[in-house]
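Most newcomers find our protein records easier to grasp once they have seen one. Read left to right, the backbone structure tokens trace the chain's path through space. Once this layout is familiar, the rest of the handout is easier to follow. The record below serves as our worked example for the rest of this section:


***
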Amino acid sequence: MHSFVGVLFVGLAAVLLAAGPAQAGTRSLPPLFRESGALENPNFRFDARADDLNYRLPNNTLPIHYDVELTTNVHDGTKKFTGKVQIDVTIVEATTTLVLHKRQLNILSAKIESATSASEDLTISYEEEREFLTLTRKTNVNFEKDTEWKVTLEYEGELRTDNGGFYLSTYTDADGNERYLAITQFESTDARHAFPCYDEPNKRATFTITINHSPTYSAISNMPVDKDASSSGKTVFTKTVSIPPYLIAFIVSDFVYTEGVLNGVPQRIYSRPGTEHEQEWALVSGMLILERLAEYYNVKYMLPKTDQAAIPDFSAGAMENWGLATYREAYMLYDKEKSTVNTQTNIASTIAHEYCHYWFGDYVAIEWWTYLWLKESFATLFEYKATDAAYPEWGIWQQFLTSSYQSALVNDAGNSPRPMTHYVQTPSEISRIFDTVSYSKGGSVLNMWNHALTDKVFQRGLHNYLDANQYSSAVEEQLFLAIQTAAKEENYEIPAKIEDMLGSWSRQGGYPLLTVTRNYNNGSFTVTQSSFHNNKNTVTQKSWYIPFNYAHQSNPDFRDTEASHYLLNVPSVRVDAKLDKEDWLILNKQSTGYYRINYDEENWKLIIDGLIKSPYKIHPRNRAQLMHDAYRFSASNRLAHSVLLDMMTYLPKEDQYAPWSTANGIINVYNRYLSGDAKYYDFQMFVAEIVTPIYEKLGINDVPGEHHYQKYTRNAVINMACLAGIQSCLTETKNKLKALVQHGTPIEANVQSQIYCNGLKQSGDDVFQYVFNQLMDSTDQAFRRVLISSLGCSQNEKQLKSYLESSIDKDNKLRNQERITILSPVYSRGSVGLMATIDFLDEHWDEYGNLNTGFGGTNPLNDALGGMSLYVVNTEQEKRLLALVDKVKSSEHVSSSLEASVKYNIQSNFDWLKSNRDPLMNWFQSFNIKSGTSAVISSSSMAISTLLLLVISRLF
């Protein structure tokens, strides 16, 4: 599943969005630069757990096959549905009971029979805590071991409205009529809402699905339609392969489709009528990516077809139902004339993520949710790897670095980070591990070993794993064995057992800090490992098997990323490199290793000198990561601020996306804390100095045919230039938005986010209302997300108040899933928006807390208050927010730990200012004096920007 739980972490982990096109994971989300704060997520509410309860089903009976028949009248909006399921079970141990799962279903009857036994009624009992449906034989006679039985259950239920289970979705057609559809989202524990079942990932079985529906509607599912068994209003699907229940899917709708075939595999794209012209890109990408994945794994796609469907209401980003992947519309529909390059990229990478699951998660399932990373980490890696194979000209690995890799490093650096392999039991515990550890960290760790062991060994290892465990479920040891075998088959020498090496990363949380100390007399260097935490006073005794390599100034070759050296679970290793003492040394070519690296002071100086003189001798991903590491080291008092800031002075020579995205993230962090400072102008002058050359080169106009990620770079640069108060940026963004409102002059799609946001900071009520009306009228979900984010950029209190109130106005055209996204773009844009949000919640906290969050979501009020605390940087803001928290802390909407968490986040911000403000401001002032940058920003621009640019130009 392409989950957004990791993005919800952002609110709790003080996430700041680096500029880039608005948008999965992405992974379908914009690149993240996450800043310190409650990295241990104290806002998360852990349900009380009864330690004596085992939430796993007993293994005394197992499913073999399901016949599921459902009847729905969703075409007229009816929520009620009826169902009948027949389950062929085998008795593993003699028992009088069968235990299954059910959720929110009314069981009408339960019977059982065998080939040699007549049908008999079963006694029904239900335990709500574990959602156990227990069926007991009335005769008290055992079902004997190794016998097979058919259980028949008839039941009724209601389509849900929280986007989980078997649920109701709607859209408005071209004539303004509301249309209905029924759709499923079963991961991780919601198949039990559509039919009673053994709802665990290792309880595989075959399924035959039958759906009764209006003849005016059609039904689709994992498998093709069985035309001989189907009739008008009754759709029967062919029998599935063996599959876990959570991967079953069906849709009852009036959707239309586009189809194509590549190498014998038919593919269709389904979406609401009127969007047919937006289906082509997903169809072409799907066919190409499926082929690339099958080639890489050397395992053919297994099913006779695959469909993809764009759903109007969808809580996840996308879902890998085998043969019927489902998506948010924003990650499936692409309009050649109106959509952005970012939407284009997101669609391809999201498809790659879901299609990877056809092998990792579907073909080979996970034994239990403890091993969630065994599917989500592979899907995260291959959303880039497969997209790169399909569209190598893009250079998507720069986005991997700025999104998955860097966000994983930040979120995995708390005091007690969880390991990738992490035992869970309850549905709420399961939902919480759909996070950056399972996705971004796991993907980064797999990428590290892919490079360290060579792609040849890694590729063969994945084939071995898939081949050995097909149509079954696996644990991590089976992956380790498959890669170990591959190394032997390829005659590739490895320095230790794969289980020991990879297990040191999956079985303990966090990651290492490599400290590199050079001996400038003999040319050697020493690498020492310790665990890295954002709080440098946190010390643990963890140790890893760490692959590494290096480049240096006399041999600046970053191409070969295979490991040349290892730290084999030892504290340090010495490398006799015979380096020239004038050479810079950089470990971790292309930043494929999942760790941070700190150098001795002299080597940092050599790196900075190398960047300033010849930046292109250093790989762009290393240029980006050097800044990212240096920022983290300076913020945690491991490194002087001057090292990072001196390094950033090379940026006028930079033109690549990953370094600019990283730099923009750092600037946004500084802006968050310093925007109200009396000497803010010194900071703006520094930003103007580093960004002006690239801003003047790229401008604010989209250029057809330019390199894919140059468009991403332009977006980062526009935001930085306007933040810096560069007059041309302020004027041109305002005029572009004004021309749209007054003359209908369209804004190029690829710069919409930047023009709307920066233009709205300077616009009156007429422009604001125009953009709000655009939001209400648009049916393009990707464009709606741009507008939702941009409207929060306003710095007018009246405008923001009306915008915030729209979140609870049930009569407007906001979708339920959009309502809880309104507040963050407002309160994260500075003091005006933060105070407006406090005022809004002070009056409407109960209404906001009652908004529908979608299945598995935490309460929006709790999330908002936790998120707001991350932007409090003065005592007045602190006073107001704490008063609001005190007002609501006894409400059912918020967790018992909210107040402590808010206070912790606020204190963290004050501590940051105390530690970092003075050295930063002193450096900026000194730099401006030395470089004579006072003429960069006009005095009038200074007045405007000081008033208006109080916050980051943050993308939604």
